[in-house]
Amino acid sequence: MTIATPAQRWPVRAGPYLGPILALVIWELGARALSDAFVLAAPSAILIYLSDNAALMARALGVTLGNAAAGFVIGNLAAIALATLAVVWPRSDAMVRGLALLVFCLPLVATGPILRVVFGPGPWPQIVLAALAVYYTTLIPLLVGLRALPTGWLDLVRSYGRGRMAALIHVRAMAALPYLVAGLQIAAPAAFLGAMVGEFTGAERGMGVLTIRAMRGMNVEMTWALASVATAVAVLGYLAIGWIARLFMADEPPVILAAPAEGGRKGSRAFLTVLAVAAAMIAIWWGGLRLLNLSPFFAKGPWDVFEALFLAPDAAATRSTLANAMRETGVFLLPGYVAGLAAGAVLAMLVVLFPAISGTAMPVAIALRSVPIITTAPLVVLILGRGALGTVVLVAIMVFFPTFVACLHGLRQAPGRVMDVMRSYAASPWQVLLRVRIPAMLPAFFAAARMNVPASVLAVTVVEWLATGNGIGSVMALSASLSDYDMLWSSVALVCVLSAMGYACVGLLERRVLAAYAPEQLA
Amino acid sequence: MSAAVICTDLSKTFKGGVEAVAPTSLTFAAGQTTALVGPSGCGKSTLLRMIAGLEQPSAGQITIGGQPPEETLRKANLSVAFQDPSLLPWRSVRKNIELALDLARRPKKDDDIDQLIRLVGLDGFAETRPAELSGGMRQRAAIARALSTKPDLLLLDEPFGAVDELTRQQLANDLPGIWEARGATTILVTHSVSEAVMLSDRIIVLSPRPARIVEDIAVDLPRPRSSDQARRPEFGAIVDQVFAALAHGMAETLPKAAQ
After folding, report:
1. Within a 13 Å sphere around the CA of A89, how many CA atoms are in the beta-carbon half?
2. From the candidates A157, A159, A172, A266, which should be mutated to test the interface with B, based on the most B CB atoms within 10 A?
3. Which of A404, A127, A355 lies closest to A257, judged by CA?
4. Among the CATH numbers 3.30.70.330, 3.10.20.30, 3.40.50.300, 3.10.20.740, which is that of B5-77+152-258?
5. For residues A231 and A24, what is the distance between their CA atoms, to the nearest angstrom?
6. CB–CB of A136/A79 below 8 Å?
7. Distance from B236 to chain A by nearest Cα, in Å?
8. Most CB atoms within 10 A, among A248, A336, A523, B150?
9. Nearest C-alpha of chain A: how many angstroms from B68?
């Protein structure tokens, strides 16, 4: 038996810190070597910039944090209200999930300018965008948590003649707490991301405004300083919520990225559900515009979009513009999406096969999962240029981290007894990976793949908007600046529907694959 | 006040056509302890869940003290101790018992709760959470919770199923006195024949699925009963009678299944 001495233990304790320290050193040396290329700012240069411009950065950070905090509260309260409704009134569940998904699929890049026109120059567009960015990431784990409890607990409540509300108050609420914390941890950086995207769309102050200014001025130090601060704030938000939760919770927050796969509704029932959700969405859209009494010049309703796409004299041209833009976007989006998924899954498998690297990889990955990758878009553009490569890489990075963390979690959830059986037959690590761990990983992989559909759409549209000038992101930016609101609303509707369809297609593929390779994983 | 339970032509067929309980009529006398004994998966728990109002019968009806089960549920006049103790992990033993009183809208009296905790042998563990208790202690806590609301009808679904043999014997010795003192009508589901004989006034032997009554056996042994009694011939005779009924039920059902 080997007994660990203090001398043996220190590298193990230092494991989580070695990766970041090594990365910082490589970053510093790389930046110094590439100082003539104007793409990479060294950590030392970033620190100098931050110290020289501390007041400016602090003011901008304060504004963005305020907006993000307001959006965080509003979005999470909405998520809690919706989850409560779905649990107390189960018939509303499909409708709540469907509408929530559609709203989550709204492209923030286009929603931002629309909200700017609706709310004017104040903070509300940023706050609403922050709320939109967080509510889904809280809603989904919360719905899972409110339901993931032994039936005996619910039977207990029912045996005393009490209903769903009593079950919610006495049993479900506490049982769902770890899941709520998991959602809030992801929501904290997402709120910051939403607020920054909101500031891209014509705000007067904040980190997003400075990011646009840095990009336009090709200010490398400022761009890197802003991205570093955004990253640090996001990671701190993630860690702070985890720390607060651990003060009163015994269990670690679970890793949940999307609702687990369901057996699927059959045929006509599924079709009716989709129709009902679509009808409700159109009714909310139409009713919302009526209620707010907005000018029809920029507030386009469902009928206006239908008219612009099919009845107007230039309908064919509008459709052609949108189709070309979607084709351009698809060329960047699909390779980036697939590459990000593959890289995340493969790296997670490598970490499991070679556990020595997991001590370093896991804390870094969990921290980086919380980084609003989109705020680093200007960096990717700086390094890789405004072409296809930069866009594909950014989409891949956006998809990579959640996939990696989810897959690693899934691979490690392989049932212990089955692992013991494999060990008793002296199975090799490869055999264990192929026969036990990968089937155990599949639900987490597909959950990440589903949630990454809207995330990758957000990434590609932001890069197109900020940098490349191609695709649907550029069409949305251009139509917003030209006040072509028919085109803008049509783009929003199209992207939203296609994202939701992409989500549904991944769900369909998930059910097929799970039915074939891991049928026990289907709820 | 205890209540008689009357089941009339009660049956249950699940979605997919699995028949769990064949049409059955039976009466559970007020204040008596009745054991439902049968092989695993025969439908005894389903029968119990229908009486508890947790499962809707496919046909037939149930009355508890002349009222439908919904009325008993509404008044929180029944308690169930499940096979799994179903204690909430974030609540201590005391808080788990208080939960039942909250749900049943009964007043929470500390003295009553303390007495109940003592009765089930958990003195000193009132503030302990379930994770720190053994399986037998959790089961006792669940039984204390079930008794706390002083129900007219007590339903026990294999309450000692998850505990070791020694604890099982100890629980079987101690607990009947508690629920008998409260005068509740008690229905106990078990697949342990000796446990059924030890605890009940009457044993209903059920056939393999779909459950139907094979034999109704009176247990007229004196109370209180102890594990010593299990070694007496009259106890053994009833055990033999139950085993014979179970074998008869199996023999009748298996040829049908083979056809």
Report:
1. 7
2. A159
3. A404
4. 3.40.50.300
5. 14
6. yes
7. 35
8. A336
9. 13
Same domain? For A328 and A411 the reply is: yes
Q: How confident is the model at residue B259, as a pLDDT?
A: 53
Put simply, whether B154 touches A (Cβ < 8 Å) is: no
The residue in chain A having the minimum alpha-carbon distance to the alpha carbon of residue B131 is A250
B35 closest CA partner among B210, B169, B241, B218: B218
The two tokens of residue A379 are 């960096």
**Are B239 and B197 contacting, i.e. CB atoms less than 8 angstroms apart?**
yes
Q: Using CA atoms, how far apart are residues B22 and B212, in angstroms rounded to an integer? A: 6
User: What angle is formed at CA A287 by the lines to CA A285 and CA A289, rounded to 5 degrees?
Assistant: 70
- Under an 8 A CB cutoff, do B52 and A157 touch? no
What would the pLDDT profile of A450-477 be if each residue is shown by its tens digit? 888 888 888 888 888 777 778 898 898 8
Residue B51 in tokens: 């009486």
Question: Which of B125, B155, B123, B150 shows the shortest CA–CA distance to B34?
Answer: B155
Contact present, A107 and A497 (Cβ < 8 Å): no
CA distances from A360 to A15, A102, A411, A415 (A): 5, 37, 17, 24
| pLDDT given at position A255 | 52
Complete edge-to-edge strand list for the sheet that includes strand B5-13: B19-28, B5-13, B59-64
DSSP three-state, residue B25: strand
Helix (H, G, I), strand (E, B) or coil at B156: strand
Q: Of A402, A401, A394, A504, which is closest to residue A460 (Cα–Cα)?
A: A394
Q: Please tell me the distance from the alpha carbon of residue B118 to that of residue B116, in angstroms, as a whole number.
A: 5
The token duo for B250 is 């199996």
| A171 reaches B (C-beta below 8 A) | yes
Q: Which residues contact B140 (CB under 8 A, 6 or more apart)?
A: B120, B121, B122, B171
Query: pLDDT tens-digit profile of B100-114?
Result: 999 989 999 999 999
Quick: pLDDT tens for A137-173.
888 888 888 887 888 899 999 988 898 999 999 999 9
Q: Could you identify the residue written with the tokens 């932001």?
A: A462
Three-state SS at B203: strand
Contacts of B80 in chain A (CB under 8 A): 155-156, 159
Do A303 and A369 have their domain in common?
yes
One domain, residues A159 and A281? no
* Residue numbers in chain B where pLDDT is lower than 70: 1-2, 162, 254-259
Is B80's Cβ below 8 Å from some Cβ in A? Answer: yes
Pair (A400, A467) in one structural domain:
yes
Give, as one character, the DSSP assignment of residue A434: I
Q: Does residue A5 form part of some domain? A: no
Q: Which two tokens stand for residue A318?
A: 């509008």
**Residue B78 in contact with partner chain A when CB distance is under 8 A:** yes
Q: Residues B74, A162: contact at Cβ < 8 Å?
A: no
Higher pLDDT, residue B170 or A12: B170
C-alpha span between B62 and B210 (Å, rounded):
18
Give the one of A153, A159, A162 whose C-beta lies nearest to B79's C-beta: A159
Give me the number of domains chain A comprises: 2
CB pair distance less than 8 Å for B82 and A161:
no
Are A340 and A456 a contacting pair, CB within 8 Å?
yes
CATH 3.40.50.300 in chain B: give the residue spans. Answer: 5-77+152-258
Read off the tokens for A87: 């649990």
Residue where the block lists tokens 């494999």: A422
Q: How far apart are the first and last CA of chain A?
A: 43
DSSP A433: I
Give the confidence band of A510 by pLDDT, cuts at 50, 70, 90. Answer: confident
